[in-house]
Structure formats: structure tokens, C-alpha cells
Amino acid sequence: MQRNIIPTLFKTSATLVAFLALFVAPIAEAAESHPWPVTLREQMARIADIGFRLDLAAAPLCHSTMSGIGLTLDHIGAYQKSDQVAVAQLLGMTDSPQIAAIASGSPADLAGLRVGDDLVAIDGVSTASLFAVTPNQSLFADALEERLGAMPPGRAILLRLRRGGQEREATVQPIPICSARFLIKTNKGIDAFSDSKNVAISSSLIEFAQNDDELALVAGHELGHVVNQDGDAKGLSDRRRMEDRADLLGAGLARCAGYNPARGVEFWLRYNAQDWLRLFRSPSHRSPKSRVKLMREYALNGPCPPTVGLVGQVAGNGR
Description:
It is a single chain. The protein is α+β, with helices and mostly antiparallel strands. It has two domains: 65-177, Roll (Pdz3 Domain), CATH 2.30.42.10; 187-298, no CATH class. It has helices at 16-19, 36-58, 81-91, 107-110, 127-132, 140-149, 203-208, 212-228, 236-256, 261-264, 266-274, 288-298; strands at 3-4, 65-68, 71-74, 98-102, 118-122, 125-126, 157-163, 166-172, 175-178, 181-185, 192-194, 198-202. It is globular. Its EC number is 3.4.24.-. It is an enzyme of class 3 (hydrolase). Residues 1-30 form the signal peptide. It holds the Pfam family PDZ_6. Residues 76-134 form the PDZ domain.
């Protein structure tokens, strides 16, 4: 079941399967008038950093972990055919999967991988051969990331890369992180949602967030749902408890990941100020001001990993 951090008047019918192909629909030009592929790459870099740090902070709490490397891959086949020539020129892409983003301080970063490197082989298996047997080739980059994440924890991974026409090898030592993947949804609405395995952040929300502290707080809320394995609620009160727990746990995860949740909660105050439809929105969430009050009271300090907001711990009833 998808859960939205932003209570919306209209429900979306999109599924996680649909937005995994995150490059298919071009996003709007950014305010700086960057071409949309460049803007998307900038957003991927932010999400790569934030997602890796949150997953690392959540690893002791998650129901499942994966081998964390801290890289995001891209492949030209994920784009519409009509865009592929322009995208390849703008981003320097070839037929090989390309490293699109690297989380700062991650195993990929420490191993010397760079954005723009082509990934030629994984442990001696060529990516060209893997592409040939991938059922949905538009999702090839996602399939490779899942393959890397499924490697045995603690075992070094040998990658063959192509940089500036020259091939080289790099050994990456993955670390255990929460298995939740962070994905970008290319739409026009300010939105974020999750299921039991993935977190989706809209491109518009990324643009709306004024800093990474705000973005980490929103992403942490959705990761909180994944950690708590929130599913169908038994009623409105149960849903409200889930949302309160996710707010508190998400703020704690953001704090433990090195972000400032006291600064991050400003997202909700700015969102409330521009949201003229707020009187008609779902009652499953507190008002933005009440959410900020709750997080300031319970989640700005504490141990790491965080304990407040976990299943079984329910926030106060004031709304």
C-alpha cells in the first residue's frame, strides 16, 4: 500500500512499478533554465546522498538490509527514443550504464568511482551480457543496482569502469544498509510516498525543499513507514498513529544521518503557508503546525539509532 506524506485531495493511481522508469517522463525546466536531464541529474545527486545516509542510519532497525555501495546508475535505454540523442550529448552517455550519482563518503566514493564513469563489468560479468538477458531493458539501471545490493554483505565487489576512453578496475567494499531504495517520481505535484520496500520523492518536492535538512526530514518520514512495515490501517485512529510514528522516527533518522531536523521542519511551515487547499485535505495527518510541534517535542534529541517512533510507541493524542 502506498502512503503519502503530503495529504492530497485526489488519490493517485500510479504504482511503484510505473515510477521505477523515472526517466521516461521529462520533468519541467528548473528555475535556472537547465535542460531537464541536467536538472534530473542534480536531483539524483541529492537523493543519492540523502538516501544512503538515511539507509545507513536505519540499518539496525530495518527488517532487511542490503549491501550498500552508494552509487546511482543510469542507462540511455530508460529515456524515450526521441530524447536519447540529446540526453546522450548532454550527459556524455554511451550504450553502457553510467554512474549518475555517488553518495559522499560511501564505499563507491572511497573506491575512487566518479560520476560519468561507464560500468563495463561486475565481478567479471560484462554489463552488455546482463543487458541482453534483462526482461525490461528500460529498467536496466535499476536491475543492476538491485544486483549490486544483493551481493553478500562484507564481500568486496570488483568493478570494471571506463573513464575517458580508458578502462580501469576498482574494488568496492559494501556495507550493510537498510534495503529501502529512494526513487524520483517525475511529476508536477509536491509529493512523497512509500510502500514496504521503496521511497518515492517527487521532483517538484525536491525543488520545493530549500535545503537537504528539509529533504531528509521528508524522506525520513517515508523511510519510517518502511522500517515500521506500515500497511493497511484498521481505521482513522490507527492511520494517525502510523503517521505520528513515521514523523518521529523520520526526524530521528534524519538527525542520526547527520542532518538538522530542527531546520528541516521548516519545510512543513512553508508548505502550510502555500497550501490553500489544506482545509479539504485528509484527516489522517496532523496539521503541519501540529506535526512540527510534535517533532520538536520528541525527536530533536535522543540516541542513535532512534527509538522514538518505532512500532509500539505512540505519540501524544493532541492534534
